[in-house]
Design brief:
This protein is about 40% helix and about 10% strand. β13 and β14 form a beta hairpin. The structure holds glutamine and zinc ion.
Length: about 750
């Protein structure tokens, strides 16, 4: 029998119930039992949704109290040893100490889950890990799932991916040294699952889509020969890209039940699978996009899968491309989206229906579902023509812009002389990254305005008052290049998206970013353009309050792109160019208004990197092209800044140089300036000297030490002094001390 299934369901709850429950547990407002009851309730609801949408299996084990990688570590007894917890007895209190730290422990490090915006906790490998785990949560979940009287599929993150994603802390020469012990732990759990009559394990090895070396590939082969012989019902699961060619051929020899592949982001692997995948093994194809919010084009899905149906018959299974963790839960909460645009969208619940419909088209009664194909076809057709999407003027402008010279008039050496004269800054200019504390007063002000409680003029008056306050404060501290503080911005992407055509917003479209933190990304549905100026009014106002330069603040095209759901009917490159063009107009207006320094933030540049390194160059080329479009025309005396954070930049340093910003401010405090070791940035640079994520206030001496460290790598004339990132999450009390200390140490050094 063929199967319709989903790789995973969002676990945060349709009204973020898990988020609020976790947070209440952390402040001891509810106890562990209440939190676990809420988690159980979410699972039951998620399974009901799968049953209602006619999935053939319910997916179990995709739930997690914070992060699925940490939960996997608990399950297999591979938690970091530095916490000194008995790995066989992990309760939620201990679990959250590992995830979030406490006064005695640093939290586990967090990093991005492949190329998504989900963040996982990084495993910490050392030789003393016992691999004797606590399986209570998984078996409780299974026990609860039994009440649904439906076939169960258990999800496990696979051993190779688990090892690969971790970091060696000490005492090991290779991560794979831990594999034998880890495998024993896997077999233990699998044995227990067998005893519970679990008939399918979805074992996930997304690293198969990376370019692995032979050591890992050999380990792969051995592992799955061993596990497959031990338990025949493994659905080896990959997603986010195509399985690398080199990894493909031995896969079909493995003693596994079947494989799941991503047909949305790994389209190119389909022809190989059609040709070479053995017909006696399951081939689960992820045809419904689990990472984006667009409704499926059912007809094209049907035709894509038809040859597979012909060859594999009911060994062909239909699924989501990856777990739906990355998309919101249900479109039904979206009451404010324009009905035409809404008809283009599909969240988790709608995606389950699509999976079922596609399966029915092959294996069920086609006439029963034909109406869905007809309406899907209508939508596809209307999207091709809709004026909400297509704007000819934008298309013409994009054609033109691809032919212009994106380099500035003069080289940096020449520009900087003119800029220095114009700006008249001291050595080691001190600046901040843009935002100042977002107090509850400011949040309330924006909320009152947005909900219509106060009018625009009153809102503007109060925002201006705030800007005035922030400017005066910075003068008091003695900073050299000021900012207006971004009090009018709720979020650096949303603020611009709301003013640009082509961007849409959801009311309840929450997606888990990490732990209890959720984001509500905008979606880009149409050609992007700027109907009117966005920032000059307040920038000009801020500049009018002081003799010191005030930076104009923009979010760059790549960050706008990657922190939104993007169009799937157009190359990302083109969408980025459209945003860049809109920003280019804004830069022109800022320059005309007399703003002498413009900062274009690109914290997400690195996030866009493709999973396969061989594709990096192509991406970086267009990304940097789009970035440079935004300002290439400016006068030599206008100084362009950019800011980056959240990631390691070591492997793309040369590309950062190519961005040719006059000044780059970058996150380095946490890593103790390590980045600078091999970074010969030719222009001006401000390595962050204050970690804004930490409540610790560095004293004058520490700051001076960091600055002096930076001076070992960077010539004094190029060195700027600034925090790691925006100050919006800190309090005024904290930043007053920090900025005072920074100014003191800079004065000493000067
Ligand atoms: N200008 C933004 C701020 O200061 C930059 C934020 C970021 O890099 N994420 O908040
Ligand atoms: Zn930042």
């Amino acid at each position: 029998m063929s199967v319709a299934h989903v790789l995973g369901f969002p676990r945060i709850g349709s009204n973020r119930e898990l988020k609020f429950a976790m947070e209440s547990f952390w402040i001891k407002k509810i106890n562990e039992k209440s939190l676990r009851d809420i988690g159980k309730e979410i699972c039951l609801i998620n399974w009901d949704a799968q049953i209602n949408s006619n999935m053939d299996y319910i997916t179990v084990g995709d739930f997690s109290w914070y992060d699925h990688v940490l939960s996997t570590l608990v399950l297999f007894g591979a938690i970091p040893t530095r916490f000194k917890f008995n790995p066989r007895k992990i309760n939620l209190r201990k679990y959250y100490i590992m995830a979030r730290g406490d006064k005695n422990h640093l939290a586990m490090e967090m990093t991005k889950w492949f190329n998504t915006n989900y963040h996982y906790l990084v495993p910490e490998w050392s030789p003393d890990i016992l691999f004797k785990g606590d399986a209570t949560w998984l078996f409780e979940e299974i026990f609860n799932a039994y009440t649904k009287d439906k076939k169960i599929k258990v999800v496990l993150l696979g051993p190779l991916t688990l090892l690969y994603l971790g970091k060696i802390k000490y005492g090991l020469s290779h991560k794979l040294d831990l594999l034998p012990k880890l495998l024993i732990s896997y077999k233990n759990i699998i044995r227990r699952l067998k005893r519970k009559d679990i008939s399918l394990i979805q074992i996930e090895e997304p690293i198969l889509t990376l370019e692995l070396d032979n050591l890992w590939l050999d380990a792969f082969k051995k592992t799955y020969i061993e596990l497959g012989n031990y338990y025949p019902f493994l659905l080896l699961t990959t997603y986010f890209d195509s399985i690398n060619k080199e990894n493909f051929f031995y896969l079909k020899e493995l003693p596994i039940y079947g494989i799941h592949i991503d047909a949305v982001y790994g389209n190119s692997q389909l022809k190989n699978f059609l040709k070479f995948w053995p017909i006696n093994k399951i081939l689960s194809i992820g045809i419904v996009d689990g990472r984006n919010i667009w409704r499926s084009d059912l007809k094209s899905a049907f035709f894509k899968l038809r040859p597979f149906y012909k060859k594999f018959g009911n060994k062909l299974w239909i699924s989501s491309s990856c777990s739906c963790l990355h998309v919101p839960i249900d479109l039904k909460y979206e009451k404010f989206i324009d009905s035409e645009i809404k008809s283009w969208l599909s969240f988790t619940i709608q995606k389950l229906d699509e999976i079922f419909i596609i399966k029915e088209a092959f294996f069920g009664n086609f006439y029963k579902i034909i109406k869905y194909f007809i309406s899907s076809e209508k939508i596809v057709k209307s999207k091709k023509k809709s004026i909400r999407i297509h704007n000819n003027l934008v298309k013409i402008a994009i054609d033109k812009i691809q032919k212009i010279n994106i380099n500035r008039n003069s080289t940096f050496t020449k520009r900087i002389v003119i800029q220095k004269k114009n700006l008249n800054l001291p050595n080691f200019p001190i600046t901040t990254i843009g935002s100042f504390p977002q107090t509850s007063k400011i949040r309330k002000l924006r909320f009152n305005y947005k909900s219509g409680r106060i009018g625009y003029l009153e809102y503007l008056k109060k925002i201006k008052k705030e800007i005035h306050f922030v400017i005066k404060k910075q003068e008091e501290f003695g900073l050299d290049v000021l900012v207006h503080g971004e009090s009018e911005r709720n979020d650096m992407v949303e603020f611009f998206g709301e003013q640009l055509s082509g961007f849409g917003f959801t009311f309840n479209g929450w997606v888990q970013s990490y732990g209890s933190r959720c984001v509500k990304p905008p979606f880009i549905y149409g050609d992007v353009y700027r109907p009117k100026v966005m920032t000059t009014y307040l920038s000009e106002f801020a500049q009018s309050l002081t003799k010191k330069p005030v930076k104009g603040m923009l979010t760059g095209p790549i960050t706008m792109l990657f922190w939104s759901f993007v169009r799937n009917d157009q190359e990302k490159r083109i969408t980025a160019l459209q945003i860049a063009l809109a920003l280019r107009k804004e830069v022109r207006d800022l320059e005309k208004a007399g703003i002498s320094i413009i900062q274009i933030d690109e914290p997400a540049l690195r996030e866009g990197l493709p999973l396969k390194k061989s594709k990096w160059k192509e991406y970086l080329k267009w990304a940097i092209y789009a970035f440079k479009i935004t300002f290439s025309f400016v006068n030599d005396k206008t100084q362009i800044h950019t800011h980056m954070c959240y990631s390691e930049f070591n492997d793309i340093l040369n590309w950062i140089i190519k961005m040719d910003a006059d000044v780059i401010t970058i996150e380095t405090a946490k890593s103790n300036m390590k980045l600078l070791n091999n970074f010969n940035y030719p222009n001006d640079i401000g390595p962050g000297i204050y970690d804004i994520h930490s409540p610790r206030i560095p004293n004058v001496k520490e700051i001076s030490n960091l600055i002096n460290k930076a001076r070992n790598f960077i010539p004094d004339k190029n060195l700027w002094i600034n925090p790691d990132c925006g100050l919006k999450t800190r309090s005024w009390k904290e930043i007053s001390s920090v900025l005072t200390n920074i100014v003191k140490s800079v004065k000493n050094i000067r």
